[in-house]
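Q: Can I borrow your eye for a moment on a structure tokenisation matter? Would you mind producing a protein record, from residues through to fold? Write it directly below this note and I will take it from there.
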Amino acid sequence: MNISKKKILSMNRAFTLLELMVSMVVLSLIMLLVFRMLDSTTRTWSNAQARVSTFKEARVAFEGMTRRISQAMLNTYFDYQYPGNNQNQRPRGYERKSDLHFISGKGEDLLAAGKYPTHCIFFQAPLSFSVDPANKSFGSLLNSWGYYIERNTDRDQIPEFFPSGILEDRERYRLMEFRPPTENLKVYASDLKSRYNTDWFEDDVINGNSTEGGRPFSIPIAENIIALIIEPKNSSAIETANLLSPEYEYDSRRYQKTRNAKDPTKHQLPPLVEVTMVAMDEGSAKRIEQIYGSIPTDLVPPELFQEVDDYDDDLKELQEKLDDFRPPIAYRVFHETVGIRASKFSDSALQK
């Protein structure tokens, strides 16, 4: 009889209060851990989405810029080489020639000091940009093209119908795209002197020239771009030092200035172009503007990116400055090595 009572009591036994409390504590800890993991995952995803959205404009501009640089061309041909370029003399051989021009370097050298920081690049490519409807049927029209950074305002982008004072123009560093239509292609000119002019882009860029219809040659394609580094180099420079443009300067007509007929860049496109772009977000630009009144002109120290050998140290120094800046700056570095499709680089020793 006692045995059966014990069995019944053991079968009907419930959890004790202590067991319930321990279970609730363990369950609470598990739930807390799950919620923390969920919150951390949500924050990471939200921050990643916000970062992608913030730099979307810069990323699209960077991809378009690298794609068009890869389409640069010189359309070279071989012609007689005359002693002293005197066509009355008997030709002494053949040489590579081109009416087009590829040039890159520091903005202060190719354009003007102070307003155009870091580097810029200008070239010709079959991009078929024209404002004349009669030219739309042509598939590979030649255009002059280029990219540079300019510190300017967005006053020209404010619609005229807005009353004065409603919208304040913002001063920012902007990535500019130089894109005159085919009708304004200056690299081909009627007289020989201007035909071989190496600064065909300078006047149009600095003076903000436009077409007869008022369409500007240069337009902003991304805001808050604070650095653009252009490094043309030979394919061998991947493993060795860059001897093609050790100071970031490349000019397919440099031989005209140096009087060196065997200049390795003579009428040649660089096989590779390393492009680096640094962008900060609009929120950082607004905070800096509120505290300092405007974005500092030395946000990127002018002594940086002068020598190719110092690229890694210069980029590290720039990143450290942006990381230490107060208020904090959110930024992103874009980098890509672009292959020039039309490049057929040959040894300068082949030049007569």
Summary: Confidence is low (pLDDT under 50) at residues 190-194. DSSP finds nine helices and eleven strands in the chain. The chain has two domains: 19-54, 55-350.
